[in-house]
């Protein structure tokens, strides 16, 4: 059986890329088709010999780094891949990859991290984040409308949708009018050891963009003057560093081994934004650490209030501070063994079993 994997971009290593890595472990001979590839950043995980890129890869490097500005060109690029020689294609979709064109005899499974959020439920927030003038915003709205239409009609090209959470399954139903099977992302629990002790700091591991709402945590920890360590990088880092107090440390990007060490030694993980699933909270729970999270998105399917952490209800300092207070009051009651047990429900083996059952049956 000839298998190909399609992923929107291979330009960084995040949760979606961990899914792709597991798929390549399952199907080691499968090439990966992607719109853009950054060998310097991901080549040690996805070697160049395994990757097939689109015509967008021929753009100058400074344009490739600003690929969000030509999102309207991406539908044509994703449709240009010739996948006619494959029996099965698995697309890992965060935006465009479900829109590939396959033959009638090719089975297309789409592992959907989410329908493209900037075209649907995040459109208005996305436009605000770009800080564009009135004219550019009007042009962007028109382009987004065209992309939204393409996105909806191309959703019919998928034979079977797989959602990374119930949260995303509902989104697929709402925007594409399609049913989906839920298979949670693969968490490599063997990487994380149960650690009942902690050093006196709280931890965030995230890309640092406005969407992740890390500013809320920065403002709260400025107020309560507790130690917060932030691992990750992104467009909003410099601004947040400029408003952060002395109790907050920005460490930038760190390799997995360093992230694991910080997780195993933190007091709790802070998760202030909404995510489609949220692999980081589960990784923290695998270390026996409680999580403080905004009660929205996929994290509501992994964190259990009062047992593996606490939620706050509104994206406000007051609500988050109340959640932190509950977490501290209950701190002695959290059982690291029970927290780890909850994380084990999302072990990598269940992802592999679910994908094999669908693809190989």
Describe the structure.
Helix content is 37%, strand content 17%. Helix 8 crosses helix 12. It has 2 domains: 180 residues, 3-Layer(aba) Sandwich (Rossmann fold); 158 residues, 3-Layer(aba) Sandwich (Rossmann fold). The longest helix is centred in the middle third of the chain and has 21 residues. The protein has 14 helices and 13 strands. With 361 residues, the chain is an alpha/beta fold. The strands form 2 sheets. It has a 7-stranded parallel β-sheet, sandwiched between helices. A 6-stranded parallel β-sheet has the order 10-9-8-11-12-13, with helices on both faces. Helix 8 links the parallel strand 8 and strand 9.
Summary, kept brief:
The chain has helices at 15-26, 39-42, 61-64, 74-79, 123-129, 134-154, 166-176, 214-224, 237-243, 256-265, 279-286, 317-329, 336-343, 348-359, and strands at 3-10, 32-37, 51-53, 88-93, 107-112, 160-163, 180-182, 202-205, 228-231, 248-252, 268-271, 291-294, 309-312. It contains 14 helices and 13 strands.
Question: Which descriptors apply to this entry?
Answer:
Rossmann fold; 2 domains; 14 helices; 361 residues; 7-stranded parallel sheet; alpha/beta; 6-stranded parallel sheet
CATH topology of the largest domain: Rossmann fold
The percent range for helix content is 25-40%
> Strand percentage, roughly?
15-25%
The geometry reads as globular
End-to-end separation in angstroms reads 12 Å
Looking at the overall shape, the CATH architecture of the largest domain is 3-Layer(aba) Sandwich
Q: Output the radius of gyration.
A: 20 Å
Provide mean pLDDT, rounded: 92
| Number of continuous helical runs | 14
- Estimated structural class: alpha/beta
Q: What is the CATH level 1 assignment of the largest domain?
A: Alpha Beta
- Which blocks of ≥5 consecutive residues have pLDDT under 50? none
Major sheet attributes: 7 strands, parallel
Q: How do the strands of the widest beta sheet line up side by side?
A: 3-2-1-4-5-6-7
Q: How many discrete domains?
A: 2
The ordered string of helix (H) and strand (E) elements is: EHEHEHHEEHHEHEEHEHEHEHEEHHH
Q: How many E-type strands?
A: 13
